Amino acid sequence: MFTWRALVGAEYTKAVMALDRHLTRRRFASAAVAPLVVPASALGLGGATPPSDRIAVAGIGMGGRNRRNIQEFMKQDDVRVLTVCDLFAERRELAKQLVDGYYGNSDCTSTRFHEEVLERKDVDAVVIGTGDRWHAVMSSLAAQAGKDVYCEKPFCLTIAEGRQLVNVTRQHGTVWQCGTQRRSNPGYVFLVNTIHSGRIGKLHTVRLSFGATGGWKRNSFAKPQKKPDPEAFDYDRWLGQAPWTPYSEDRVRHWRLNWDTGAGAVADMGPHFIETVQWLRGDPLDAPVEYQGEAEFRSEGGINNIPYWYEIRSRYSDGLRLNMDTGRKGLMFIGDQGWIFLSDTGGIDAKPESVLDGLDPPDANYVIQEPHIRNFLRCMRSRQQPVSNPEASQRCHTIAHCANICLRLGRPVRWDSAAERFEGDHEANNMRYRTMRAPWRV
Asked: Which pLDDT score, from 0 to 100, does residue 95 have?
């Protein structure tokens, strides 16, 4: 809500000049005969951020996840959302309505062409919430266009793709933050500090559970259907770097279950939780050196080719065990004197109960995003690296990709973090890459 106040004399003159230096003669003449009342927030008064100092943001990929992101950005006083982009006409309209409704006007523009967004000189940053296959490609295009980036995870489909994006953002001086908001969540800060304080003794095992694989359907995704009008849904652009395949409504709806367009829960949820382990260890560039595990792949349906059930066991060079599975979604840290578990909805349990004696755990629900967004916005102004920067995020995603590769090969693999290669394993090293459909690349 605007706080209105009447301004007079020199204060009014100064405020009007700050409000709009680009008034046309006609608009200025109209304003001259109007009541001299100006919104204080628009002038930077009463603690509000003036328009000239607000960060202009665009949303690209406006499904449910990114609409929530944009809502959080709009809540920030120093941000203004200018435009939204999506390949679905319905999502474009919903996103525009969301932005216009928040600001109480009809100023937000919408487009299906990301090029139109990236060409805008008045856009400072983009919030990317597309499908996984577009994250690194779109981040790279944004960096080359001089935009800072807040990008959903997984930010890359392959280890090589992630490394390429690290290089691109470094080359262009981009402030880039991965949308792994748990890294800035006060509950996760509490978790890390509690373990560091020694309350569970010496940590020897971490178990990360990503939940059951959802959306599984027994049907034929391979049946081609008539491709929609691109104005309603631009299927060709939607595929992006993924191999061409005939349109199917189910293929689009369940894209996360298909290796061509996603990488399953290991790559989707994995980086969120793995980042906490890396943070706890104090070395975001560390990684396990060996991986082994089992998985169930279900062949029915044509596109269901990511692990349905899995158990992954990995080990760091110092002996810490990092296990991943499809159990109740959350993180368990096991020490020689007890354990502590943080569920994805924010609840914290521990054994013995004395682990939490005298402590008051804060809310750790995954929906808390503001601290992570504020970190990104502060870094945009300071040009420093945010907490979930490209290099740190690359290592978290690499661990998830190594786990996926181990499962797909059906055998153990060993990893060299310094070289970013599998040791003596040509087949596994080939899986660090995927062929990208032209013209898209990182």
From this structure: 98
Q: What is the DSSP string of 398-440?
A: HHHHHHHHHHHHTS-EEEETTTTEETT-HHHHHTT--PPPTT-
* 305 backbone dihedrals φ, ψ, rounded to 5°: -130, 25
Q: Return the H-helix or E-strand segment holding 312.
A: strand 309-315
60 in the same domain as 33: no
- Mean pLDDT across the stretch 299-324? 88
CA distances from residue 234 to 63, 69, 87, 113, 165 in whole angstroms, order as listed: 14, 23, 5, 10, 25
Return the CATH number at 93: 3.40.50.720
Q: What CA–CA distance (Å, rounded) separates 317 from 290? A: 9
Supply the pTM of this predicted model: 0.87
Q: Nearest-CA neighbor of 88 among 265, 234, 190?
A: 234
Residues 6 or more apart in contact with residue 84 via CB below 8 angstroms: 58, 59, 60, 62, 70, 92, 95, 96, 99, 108, 109, 110, 111
pLDDT above 90: residue 284: no
Q: Is residue 371 part of a domain?
A: no
